[in-house]
Structure formats: structure tokens, C-alpha cells
Amino acid sequence: MTTASPERTVGAPATRTSTADPAVGAPASGRRASWRSRLDRPVVRLVGFALALVLALVVGGGVGAIAGPTAEPVAAPPPGPAPAPAVTDPATGADVSGLAISRDGYTLDVLATPGGVDTPGELAFRILGPTGAPVTAFTPTHDKPLHLILVRRDQSGFQHLHPVMDPDGTWRTTTSLTAGDHRVFADFAPEGRSEALTLGRDIAVAGDYRPVPLPPASATATTADGYTVTLTGDLVPGTASPVTLSVSRDGAPVTDLQPYLAAYGHLVALRTGDLAYLHVHPTGTPGDGRTAAGPAIEFLAEVPSAGPYRLYLDFAHQGVVRTAEFTVVAAAGAGTPDGAPSGHGDSTPHGH
Ligand SMILES: [Cu+2]
């Protein structure tokens, strides 16, 4: 069983748990374009174009929960920013993000980091634009102008924060970090740009760093306060793969999840080894008339290559955002030359 470690469940970084995030409980209208926009990506188009056309023609408006999101974005280009095509993975042609500090003229400029181990401190940064000046106008994606993801290089200590921007473009938040190198991801869409960007860089916290081995692959994760999340679905490299996460508490299915970031769950996937930041899209929107408030939350996850990934699910229930974590190993799919795992250790079901 994969268990969320204590520091990232209720009780640890304040932002992880206490947040009565403004998004929680907020109305869902007008959010459909957000996730649809995230699907308007080259690889999705490549993989799903034919299927989407067929589905759109055959099932029309009566699309099911799984087919719908695949079909719709192709049929109706979104008005909002699309996710960045980022870097194309040479192995599969799939997109990867978060591996670069600078892209398309935009640079993640970190100004201050928490200094001490497990000591709350300010994390401050700017997004510098093509002119070198800080960007001060952003188009919200998933309800927020900027998403900040922090994770230690060993994939422990995941945090998903929403800093506040000063008028001069400096973003600030307070956080506490363990010893070691941590990856900082900024996921945002500059106003006027058609695509979102994810930039990443490392920050160091001096101290006694004891890397935590990647937990073995498991379809079940638990939180410290009694929630169990079960994952079904296989990650197929280069394909938008349906993944279902089902939430229960003390053995009973949770059917009153709250909207969080325009969905009933927010999923981040990071590739083990280089922390490539994956795009994951909820396939239903609260209030759309067909998406239940649990226990199942549906996503389309697109991984660029075979091997292990760490998945972090944020979900809101009774006013508190919780995180459940999974290790998932993507098997080589039919699209690979030999259709089989590469033989590297990373391709085995147990990962490292
Ligand atoms: Cu966010």
C-alpha cells in the first residue's frame, strides 16, 4: 500500500490542509473552458483526432463520461490559454514540461527561499517576460493566476500553493521545507499568450538530507485522517489515458466532494528521475449535469514515456484540501517499437 507520508497530509504545511481555498465550494459556472483548453494540445489532437471525430459524429451530445472530453476539445477550440507544448520528448513525441527555468522568453526568477530546515520562511519569485521585465498580468487557469508546486527531488514533501502577487509582479508565499534540493514549478499563463507555461528550477535547503526511496507502485493511497483513494486505469505513454480515483472515508464512499480548482480533484503527475511535469485533465466539471461529487474522479493523464511516476491528488471535502499520493508505473504501449518494457529497472512494476 502506498501511504501518503505524514508531512503532506493534514497537519503539515498549512497550505496543504487548512486552506479553505476560495475555490472550495465556489460555483462552477464558466469553468468548462478551463479544462477543455488544457486538452487542446498537439499530442491529444494527434492521438485522439480520429477517435474524437467518430465519437462526435456517432454519439453527438450524448457522450459518456470518458468519451466526452476526448471528443469535445477537438470539436470546439477553447477560448482560454492552452497548456504549453513545452518540450517534445524525443522518445515518444509527447510533451513534457517543467524541465526548464526559461522558455519562450519567460524565466522563473526566484528572489528568496526559506532558509532553514523545517522553518517557515518566505518563498518569493517573479516571472520575467520577453523584455526582461516582470510579468504582472496573468490569465487564470484552473481558477488561479498561478499554481506553485513544490516537491523535493526524491518526490516527497509535495506542496501545491497559490502565492499572492505584488503589483510589481513579485509572487510571495510562506512555506516550510525539509533538507535537500526541492523543485519549484510555476504553472501559469501570461495574459495575451495563447499557451500556458510550466517553468521549473531547484532550490536548496542545507541540512541532513536523507532521500526517501520511491514507494512501490500501489493502487491505493491513504491519508492520515481516514481517507482511502483507489486508482484504476493504466498509463499508456503518448496517450491521454483515463484514470479514475475513488475516494472513501472509513470504508464509506465519499459522495459530497467539494469543487476545488474547478474540478472535484486536481492531479499532478511527476516523472520519477527528472521530475518532468505532466499535464492531467479532469474529465468532468462540477455542475455540468453529469459529473458526480464522488466517489469517483475521472482524469485523462498523458505520460511521455514508460516508467514510474508519482501522482498527487488534491481533493476537497468538508472544507479541507487533502492530498493522496500514488506511484504508478507506465508500461510501454502499443505505440512503442517493441511493445514491451525496455528492460530497465524503471519499467518493472515495482520501480526502484
Ligand atoms: Cu494550483
TrEMBL record:
Annotated stretches, region: Disordered: 1-35
Regions that span the bilayer: 46-67
Alphabetical keyword list: Membrane, Transmembrane, Transmembrane helix
Protein name stated in the entry: Secreted protein
Native organism: Actinomycetospora cinnamomea
